[in-house]
Design brief:
Elements: H1 10-16, H2 23-31, H3 34-37, E1 44-46, H4 53-68, H5 78-90, E2 92-96, H6 99-120, H7 127-140, E3 141-145, E4 150-151, E5 158-163, E6 169-176, H8 177-182, E7 188-189, E8 198-199, E9 204-210
Parallel strand pairs: 1-2, 2-3
Antiparallel strand pairs: 3-4, 5-6, 6-9, 7-8
């Protein structure tokens, strides 16, 4: 018998084949790549992310890895924690054909990240940084179809890569999802895990920005 929590409606199952993976299976599957989920910079792409079962567990594990670190000591060094947190958030990507799933996924991941952040720095957390977290998630979790590589508007799916090239700075570059798949022979690997996606030449480089002001990238869009 199907676990009720794994479906939203029989209609969605019939029309879209939508069945969510339960938590136990998610954890078991991610345990197989534990070394990668413990690396904050390892890239993960879920091409049918639903409301974020896999991505929620991945970001939870990445945040736990940050908390365990001794060098630097993220428990005491707030700026170091904040930068590591943004790198972790920027390393996860998702695509789903249902807009409500995308919205729920973004909200779910945002809550996980910000709840942990505010718990650790309850008196000094930055609302600007939390805006940056939401900004990144809104661009990494896309409503579209991974099979035809188009977003819900019919445009090519575009993903942003977020890097921490210099102390205190974040760098953003955009890549076409279609090229990640079709031009892999001429490109660099996007994923540090088993997922066979690749990075071709970027289609836009937004340059570097203060990590506390990631949301200011919106002015360049």
């Amino acid at each position: 018998m199907q676990n009720k929590s794994q479906i939203k409606s029989k209609k969605r199952v019939s029309e879209h084949g939508e069945v969510f993976t339960n938590d136990r299976e998610v954890k078991a599957m991610l345990d197989l790549v534990k070394k990668e989920t413990d690396r904050i910079e390892s890239t993960f792409l879920e091409p049918a992310c639903g409301d974020g079962n896999f991505l929620a567990e991945i970001i939870t594990r990445k945040l736990a890895a940050i908390a365990r670190s001794k060098k630097p000591n993220y428990k005491k060094d707030q700026p170091a924690y904040e930068k590591a947190m943004l790198v972790a958030v920027g390393s996860i990507y998702g695509i789903d054909i249902m807009q409500d799933n995308v919205k729920e996924c973004v909200a779910r991941l945002y809550k996980i990240v910000c709840d942990e952040y505010e718990k650790r720095f309850k008196d000094t957390y930055s609302e600007d940084l939390e805006r940056g977290v939401r900004f990144i998630l809104a661009r990494n979790i896309v409503c579209g179809n991974a099979l035809d590589m188009k977003d819900y508007k019919g445009n090519p799916i575009v993903f942003s890569e977020w890097k921490n090239p210099f102390n205190g700075w974040i760098n953003r570059k955009e890549y076409a999802f279609e090229d990640l798949l079709e031009k892999g022979d001429e490109a660099l690997p996007l994923s540090d895990t088993q997922v066979p996606y690749y990075i071709p030449k970027e289609i836009k480089d937004y340059g570097n920005i203060d990590y506390r002001k990631v949301f200011d990238y919106a002015e360049q869009e």
